[in-house]
Amino acid sequence: MNRDTTISISKGIAIILMVIAHAEAPGWLCKFIFEFHMPLFFITAGYFFSLKYLNDEATFVKKRIKGLYWPMVKWSVFFLIIHNWMFDIGILNERFGNEAGGVTHPYSWHQMQQNLWNIVTAMGGYDAFLCGAFWFFRGLFVASILYLIIYKVMDDTLPKKVGKAIPYLICILLLLLCGWKTYEGLKVINLVQGGYRDMMGCFFFGCGFIFRQFVENYRKWMAKYYLSITMTLLCGVVVFLFSKYLTANMNWRSTYTQFLSLPLPALLGFLMTYNISMWINGHESRFKRFLVYTGDHTLFIFIFHIVAYKVVSLIKIWYYGLDIHQIGCHMVIHEYSQQDWFWVLYTMAGVGIPLSFDLLKDWIKARRASSGSQTH
């Protein structure tokens, strides 16, 4: 029996959208993507949450450590070690930085030590210009464990007759807490960046778990072609209108208005993506296989897409005759970014290069396994 790859396709679409947005695609497109692409990752993670972990917390936490904490720490330390070397070879410099004009600097020995401590103890301290998407690892790590804790506390304390309502109560609770937090400008002081992303991530994680309970009925409804097309287009239009008039995303500095503007387009963006993914899943093609593989191998893209952009930055510098130091721009070269189509090349590199390394890694593993079995 073939597995349903709809969620893998959804994740593949989401990671490609992330790379497009980070590549400084046209402003309207970036705003549209930011409305839902990161919430989509939390929703798809929550989709696979199982109540069996209420009585097996250790296994769940171990999986989160292995799948989120350890990769984040390992690669953050790697980029920490090479940070100053990136200045020596010209990949980073103190002249060109982000769109706001901020730049990065070489680390002193003390700063390197402090960043190491932040990485290990708080899942922070990562290189902002080379690891700009690493906040997601902490966000999902905290969100998923927080969801487990809240669910277990409610399950143990609330009357059994309200047990089925717990997933909804958790989402309501998280929305209320996030609303309070943003309205008053409060921070969770022991979470890097104040905890907004982590708490909203927990809300979307819970939404994914709820969606799983109704997914079979939803798929039956969407089996009607006209209904699927109408629903998908309607979701897309609403997300676009929000992106144009009530822009919101999972920015850690979100205002109260941005908080209010986020849940609806984020959830509709997920449904839009899921509907498209169901259609792709039902038609065998190379494109489907590519999206499935991409969705099942998002880790390397999260880690290396910014570094992969540098290859295209070199081409852009040559094409326009720009200062070679512009390779240090974060995340891509800003000059002409809203007039040209280099964002397409950036996207191809940001997805293709990390996946190529992933394929190479899998090939080496397969070769080792093959040689090992032949030896025995």
Characterization of the model:
- It is a single chain.
- By secondary structure, this protein is mainly alpha-helical.
- The chain is 70% helix and 0% strand.
- The protein is built from 14 helices and no strands.
- It has helices spanning 6-22, 27-34, 37-47, 57-88, 109-122, 135-157, 166-184, 196-222, 225-245, 256-261, 263-281, 286-296, 298-320, 342-375.
- Helix 1 (6-22) packs across helix 11 (263-281) and helix 1 crosses helix 14 (342-375).
- The two termini are 32 Å apart.
State the gist of this model:
The protein contains 14 helices and no strands. It is an all-alpha fold and 376 residues long.
N-to-C series of helices and strands: HHHHHHHHHHHHHH
Helix content: over 70%
Shape: globular
**Estimated structural class:** mainly alpha
Overall mean pLDDT score?
Answer: 95
User: N- to C-terminal separation?
Assistant: 32 Å
- The proportion of strand residues reads under 5%
Instruction: Tell me the total number of β-strands.
Output: 0
Largest sheet: none
Number of helices: 14
Work out the radius of gyration: 21 Å
Low-confidence stretches: none
Descriptive terms for the model:
376 residues; mainly alpha
